[in-house]
Amino acid sequence: MSETKAPVVPDSEKPGNDLLKQITQGPGLVSVLGVIVALVIGGLLIAITDEKVAQTAGYFFARPTDFLSELWRAATESYVALFNGAIYNSAQGFKPFLETLTVSTPLICAGLGVAVAFRAGLFNIGAQGQIIIGSVLAAYVGFAWHLPLGLHLLLVIVFGLIGGAIWGGLVGLLKAKTGAHEVILTIMFNYVAVYFIDFLMNTQAFRRPGGTNPISPILDSTAVFPSIPGSRLHLGFVMAVLLVIFVSWMFKRSTVGFEFRAVGHNPEAAKTAGINVARSTIIAMAMAGALAGAAGVAQVAGTEKVLTSGIAGSLGFDAITVALLGRSTPWGTFFAGLLFGAFQAGAVNMQITTGTPIDIVSVVQSLIVLFIAAPPLVKAIFGMNRKKKRNAKLETTQAGAK
Amino acid sequence: MRFVSRKTGVAAAMLGISALALSACGAAPEESSSAGKYPDYVGCIVSDSGGFDDQSFNESSYRGLKNAEKDLGIKTREAESKTNADFATNLQGMTSAGCNLTVTVGYLLGDATADAAAKNPDSNFAIVDFQHKDPIENVKPIIYNTAQAAYLAGYAAAAASETGTVATFGGIKIPTVTIFMDGFADGVAKFNEDKGENVKLLGWDKKKQDGTFSGDFEKQDKGKQITKNFISAGADVIMPVAGPVGKGAGAAVAEANKGGEEAKLIWVDSDGYLTAPDYKKFMLTSVVKTMDNAVEDVIKADAEGNFDATPYVGTLENEGVALAPFHDFDSSIGEDTKKEIEALKEQIISGDLKVESAASPK
Asked: Quick one: which of A271, A1, A3 has its CA closest to A121?
C-alpha cells in the first residue's frame, strides 16, 4: 500500500469539499430558524390538504370564521398530535418519548456512519447497502446459531458490525486502489445488497421451517437486545450513545481521527504531510460501514427481530439527511437523529388521530433539511445576509473596475 | 417575479383573489348530525409498505373499510406503513386509538399482528392474505383459494390463444403470487388434455415452482420488458401477477397491438377492464379477489358482535374469487368455450375437480 497508489483527487471534487465545509460550519441559529420556517410551511400544507378546510373555504363569505378556525385547527391539531406521539401525552406520559428514542437508534448509528465518511472527505451514499449486509449477518447469527445468553447478543452485534465494515471497506479499498469514485461505488453496492437480500430471502436457509413467505425465523431470545417492559426501547439505544461518544473521542483525540479530518480538508496536503491517504480512505469507509451495520443490528436485534428484504426501509437515505442536519459532528448527528426519530414516531400518531397523510410529514422533514442544507436561503428569508450582499456587490464592482 | 411588471402582477393577483372569492360564495351548511348504525364502532386498517394506492390488496382492503364506513356508519382510522419498521408502531397506535377491529394487510404484518393481538385481547384483528400457523383467538385470517379462479383464466387463455403460447409472470415469488400462476398453469394443462392441443406456457413451471419474476411490485418498465420478451417469444395472452407492474405489461401489449400483433392481457386482483381502463381494449378477462367485500363482511360481523376467528377463505363458491366477464372479447370467445368454463367452475365448486397449489390455504 504505497503512497504512489493514493488516488489523485480530481478537480471536480473540490466544489464538493466546499459544500462539506459549508455544511459542517454553518451556525446553529440558522438551523433553528430553518426548522421554524419548515414547520410554518408544513402547517400551511397540512391546512391546505385538510378536507374540512377545503369545505369551509367553499363558503368563506357566508361564514368566514369557520374557515379560519378550521385552518387553525388543522395546523395546530396535527402538530399537537405529532408532539403527543413523539414526546408526551396525558394518557401515556412520556412513553411516546421512549418510542422516539427507539426509532432514532438506527438513524443515529447509520447517520454516524455517513458523518464519519463526510469528515474524511467521502460521500458515503452506501449506508443502505451496509445496513442490509450488517443485518443479514447479524440476523443469521441470531436465528441460526443457538448460544448462551450474553455471548449470543455480543456475536450478533460483532457480526453486524463486520458485515457493514466489509461492505463499506470494499468501497474504500476500490477507491484507494483504483481511484473509482466512492459515490458511484456505494450506489452500485446498494443495488448489489438490495438484490442479494432478495435472493437470500428466497432460499430455504433464511426462511421459517416449512414457510414459503420470504421472512426469516424470529431471532432467539438470547440474541435480541433486552428492552424496557411496556415499551419498545431496547439496549441498542445505549449502543448508539456509546458509538456517538466513541466517534466524538476519535475525532478529537485519536491519530486516526486526526488523519480523517486532515484528508477530508485537503488530501494533497495530508499526503504531503506524510499521511497515508489510501489507508485513511479504507479505514474511514470500513468504519462508516461498521456504524451503518450497527443500525442493521439495532433493526434485527432491537425492533424487528426478524429479517425481511425491507429491513433497511429508507434508513440508508434518511441517514444521509441526518448526517447533513447534524453538520457531520457526532453529537449533531445524535440530536438530528432524535429529531428525525421524533418526527417518525409522531407521524404515526398524527396519521392515525388526525388523518394527515404521512407523506406530508415527510414533506416537512424534507423542508427542514432543505432549509438547513441551504443556509443562504434561510438567511435571505430573515434578511440576515444583507450586509454580506452589500460587501459582495462592492467586491464585484471593484473587480469590475480593475 | 422580477420579469413580471408590477401592474401585471397586481392584475394577476386581483384576478386570482376574485376567482377565489367567487368560489367561496357557497352557502354555509346547516349544523347537522347524522348518526349511522354503529356510530361508536371504530374500524381501522394498517397497510404494508405498498400503501393504499397500490392497485392491489392494500387498495381493495381499504375500499372495504371505506364501504363499511359508508354502509354501516362506523368511524374509521387508517395508517399507511412506509417501511417494515412502521408495522408495530402503527398497530400500537391503532389499539391505543380505541379500534374495535384492525385490518392488517399482508404476511409481512403477521408477526406484528400476532403481537398486538396478544397484548390487546379485547380488540379484534383481521389479516388479509395471511394465516398464522397456530390460530389466534382474536385474529381472523382473510385468505383466498385464488388458484380456482386462475384455473379458469388459464383455460380461457389457452382457448383464446392463436399462437398456441400463453405467458405469466409474478412480482415477487411469494405464495399469494404463485397461487395465481399455479392455477393458471393447471388451467392451460387442462385445456391441452381435453382438446389434445399443445398450448405452451411461458414464465412459470409448476413442477419446479419457478419462473419469471419482475423482482418487486413497483418497476413498471421491468414488467414491460418481460412482456415484450414474452410476445417476441410468441405469447399472445399474458397474465402479470405483480400489482402496479401489470401496467408495464399493459404498455407492452398496447405497443404490440399497434405493431399489428394481437396480444391480450389477463388482469389480476380486480376487474382490469374497470380498474385499468387504459388497457381495457386488450383485457381478455381478470382473476378477481373480492377483498373489499370480505373486509366489509368481517367488520359488519364484528360490529354486530359476531366476530369469530375461523379463516375466511375466498373461493369460487362464495364468490371470494371469480373470473371477470370477457367484456369486449365476449363475442370472440366461442359459446362452447364459455360452456366449458362454466362446467369447470361447477366441477370445482362441487369438489369433483380439485385445483391444487402449494400455496393454497390449508
From this structure: A271
Contacts of B107 in chain A (CB under 8 A): 213, 215
Res B171 pLDDT > 60: yes
Q: What is the rounded CA–CA span in Å between residue A83 and residue A74?
A: 14
Q: Which amino acid is at B135?
A: P
Task: Please determine, for residue B57, whether its predicted confidence score (pLDDT) is greater than 70.
Answer: yes
Residues in CB range of B283: below 8 A, 6 or more apart: B264, B265, B266, B267, B272, B273, B276, B327, B328, B329
Q: Which helix (H) or strand (E) holds A198?
A: helix A182-201
What letter would DSSP give residue A301?
I
**Looking at residue B313, what is its pLDDT?**
95
DSSP A355: -
CB contact under 8 A, A92 and B88: no
* Residue of chain B with shortest Cα separation from A313: B83
Q: Which amino acid is at B336?
A: D
Given this model, what pLDDT does residue A362 score?
80
Least confident range from A153-167, A339-353, A361-375, B302-316: namely A361-375
Query: Is the pLDDT confidence value at B223 over 50?
Result: yes
Whether the CB-CB separation of A330 and A247 falls below 8 Å is answered with yes
Q: Residue B124 and residue B44: Cα distance in Å, rounded?
A: 10
CA distance A66 to B228: 55
Distances (CA, A) of A18 to A12, A13, A264, B174: 11, 9, 11, 48
Sign of CA dihedral B274, B276, B277, B283: negative
- Using the 8-state DSSP alphabet, how is residue B25 labeled? -
Would you state the cell numbers that stand for residue B38, as one nine-digit string? 354503529
Going through A322-373 in order, the beta strands assigned E by DSSP cover none
Spatial distance between the Cα atoms of B148 and B321, rounded to a whole number of angstroms = 8
A253: its cell numbers: 483525540
- Rounded to whole angstroms, the Cα distance separating B176 from B144 reads 8
What is the tens place of the pLDDT at every residue in A260-299?
999 999 999 999 999 999 999 999 999 999 999 999 999 9
The mean-pLDDT minimum among A19-33, B201-215, B274-288 falls in: A19-33
Distant-in-sequence, close-in-space partners of B88: CB < 8 Å, separation ≥ 6: A232, A303, B112, B115, B116
Query: Are B94 and A352 in contact (CB < 8 Å)?
Result: yes
Nearest CA in chain A to B106: A213
Distance CA B197, CA A210 (A): 37
B176 Cα to chain A: minimum distance (Å): 9
Strands (E), B87-234: 101-105, 124-128, 139-144, 165-170, 200-202, 204-205, 210-211
Q: Give contacts of A348 with chain B, Cβ < 8 Å.
A: 79, 86, 89-90, 93
Pairing of strands B210-211, B204-205: antiparallel
* pTM of the predicted model as reported, rounded to 2 decimal places: 0.82
Min distance A354 CA to chain B CA atoms (Å)? 9
Cα(B355)–Cα(B186) distance, rounded to whole angstroms? Answer: 8
A211 Cβ neighbours under 8 A, 6+ residues apart: none
